[in-house]
Write a structure and sequence with these properties.
Length: 387
């Protein structure tokens, strides 16, 4: 059943619209609002599949209603109705995000066709959102241990919000997978996900990389260039190994978080950005703060939500699942026959000290698939994966 709200200040027209739609489809559930303010209150407290809204109304006109509704429930399609059938009004409503525009008195066939199309579009939007909640296979988080279950539960709670997240853990534990899950399960999933490895960028270039620069800002700045924060606008920026960022760059990141503004290197001109920040580090940032290497105010801005990714040694029960996952993935990528691992081989691998974590385990599985027999045995592990 589709739920439709009709916002119209003229009672006679409101009744006509409700009658037409009720007769067209008896599964439509129609509700009415006599002005824009009441319409917004109804939208706040109900889930509508479509809104028909008059443009010219007292207290709050249709465009204002549309703009306010976009902030509350942006997925609701609006059909705007007006007795002033001029092109400027039509253009303004479409620019504001209306699905369509119909002049009074509405052509019956056009009205009903537009309503059907708008409802179909709403259904597609909902389906797409559901599909986007399924994280890409490239970033699958494999494991059934208590530690991984806790992380997955936190992601489900945190992802739909814009809360900043600080992910901690040793190298190779999968911090980037957590960041991808947070983005792909968020309302920003259709916008960019921009990764920045702060440890891989020289300290003298990190500010330009993050915030961009203008022509002439330094010797090699031959033209204006946008930075990663601008590239991530409306989406997510992932600052990996943020503990390696210079103090001057940290100050600019802090300003971006506080004011949602950045400025390119070489200019004081502000640029507004709407970016969710997720950061990760393998360092103990509290120790870095004590040593004067990391700003305490930035830490508190970033660490709204803390997610600690466990080492592989702390989730050994996941190793059989990870071995199977990597074995299938590697054989598929290399076009070779799938290989099974014997129970004894798996048990021996579970006993090893995985200082390199999941990244090391994947390398070992690949080595065993290439060098081991048709079934990877305990002897293969001793020969080719010796610790």
């Amino acid at each position: 059943m589709s739920k439709i709200l009709v916002i119209e200040d003229e009672a006679a027209i409101r009744r006509v619209l409700v009658k037409i739609l009720s007769e067209e489809n008896d599964t439509y559930k129609l509700e009415e609002a006599e002005d824009g303010l009441k319409g917004i209150e109804a939208i706040k407290s109900n889930d509508y599949d479509l809104v028909l809204c008059d443009i010219k109304m007292p207290k709050m006109d249709g465009v204002e209603v549309l703009e306010a509704a976009r902030k509350i429930k942006p997925e609701i399609p609006f059909i705007m109705i007006s007795g002033h059938g001029d092109l400027d009004t039509a253009v303004n409503t479409m620019r504001a995000g209306a699905f369509d525009y119909i002049s009074k008195p509405p052509d019956l066939n056009r009205l009903l066709t537009t309503v059907r199309n708008a409802l179909d579009r709403k259904e597609l939007v909902v389906e797409n959102k559901i599909l986007k909640k399924k994280v890409s296979k490239n970033y699958e988080m494999v494991g059934e241990s208590t530690e991984i279950a806790v992380i997955k539960d936190m992601i489900e709670k945190v992802a739909p919000t814009d809360a900043r997240v600080l992910i901690t853990g040793s190298n190779g534990t999968g911090k980037e997978l957590v960041a991808h899950w947070l983005h792909e399960k968020s309302t920003r999933s259709s916008a960019p996900f921009i990764e920045v490895n702060c440890a891989a960028i020289p300290s003298e270039l990190i500010e330009s990389e993050l915030f961009g620069h203008v022509k002439g800002a330094f010797t090699s700045a031959v033209k204006d260039r946008a930075g990663k924060f601008e590239a991530a606008n409306k989406g997510t920026i992932f600052l990996d190994e943020i503990g390696d960022m210079s103090l001057s760059a940290q100050a600019k990141v802090l300003r971006a978080l506080q004011e949602s503004k950045i400025s390119r290197v070489g200019t004081d001109k502000d640029i507004k950005v709407d970016v969710r920040v997720i950061a990760a580090t393998n360092k103990n940032l509290k120790e870095e703060i004590a040593a004067g290497k990391f700003r305490e105010d930035l830490y508190h801005r970033l660490a709204v939500i803390l997610i600690k990714v466990p080492s592989l040694n702390d989730r050994r029960e996941d190793i059989p699942l990870l071995i199977n996952y990597f074995a299938n993935k590697i054989t598929g990528e290399q076009g070779i026959a799938k290989k099974a691992f014997s129970d004894k081989a798996i048990k021996l691998l579970q006993s090893y000290d995985w200082t390199g974590n999941i990244r090391e385990l994947r390398n070992v599985v690949e080595r065993l698939i290439i060098l081991g027999g048709n079934e990877v045995t305990e002897e293969d592990v001793k020969l080719f994966a010796s610790k």
